[in-house]
Amino acid sequence: MDNKTIEKNSIKAWILAARPKTLTGAAVPVMIGLALAFADSQQDGNKPFSWIAATLCMLFAFIMQIDANFVNDLFDFTKGTDDRETRLGPERACAQGWVSVDAMKHAIAITTVLACIVGLPLVLYGGMEMILVGFFCVLFCFLYTTHLSYMGLGDLLVLVFFGVVPVTVTYYLQMHNITAEVVVASIACGVVIDALLLVNNFRDRDTDRVAGKNTLVVHIGAEATLGVYLGVGIGATLLGLLFWMNGHLLAFVLPFVYLALHFFTYLKMKKIWQGKALNECLGETARNIFVYGLTVALGVLLS
Known about the structure:
Blueprint: H1 11-18, H2 23-43, H3 51-79, H4 93-96, H5 101-119, H6 123-126, H7 129-146, H8 154-175, H9 180-203, H10 205-211, H11 216-220, H12 222-239, H13 241-245, H14 249-253, H15 256-272, H16 279-302
């Protein structure tokens, strides 16, 4: 993209900094949690479904994702991880000069506060423990980029904060309990979304190694990472057997559409192997994640 077409701190610059394509990763776990809660609420007339709580969950997830993107943009730039000359991934706002460092700091403060404001009313639906959940979401939003991703813990955090936490908490806010099916669904969701991080780190493995960012890919190597990438798709789909056992047959069958797409992306990664061309696989993986979330949610509701 031509930097001259992006005016500094403009609306276009902020839209690019927010990384709209990553919002699928925020939407999918909430979507799955809501689908499971809605289906179960229809079977239990004593637990009506709250559309207000559902809307707040989705808004909180979106704002926190944007907040995380801003934090990542700022700190990777200040740490020197994002270098406009060597970067292989999509261009970043601070590194490209689209957004000033001071403006980004202010934006992080605003999105963090806004997320807290949006999430606070969820106390009415889930109790005071929701404040603790929100606190850890904000805390690890910052710790991920500043420390934990450099220690190879990124994949674990994705599993927890893009799988277990959003799916189970979204369901709990509606039903006030958590079932085995919800727990398994949350793990499968986190595993699927981790594929996005795997592609990103697979592409950046050489520059990350130089920068001292010891991701899983740096630890286990490129060939093994490809195996893990394929495995997360297969594993998540097979975990859906529990959906079938709980009467949600379509929630197990429909995600095989996702698995087919995931397999073709895996083949493309294997062929491309390295370089900026892997950004195409990044985009496909984001699409695949959305397809997974959509097929699981539809499968639960239609069953």
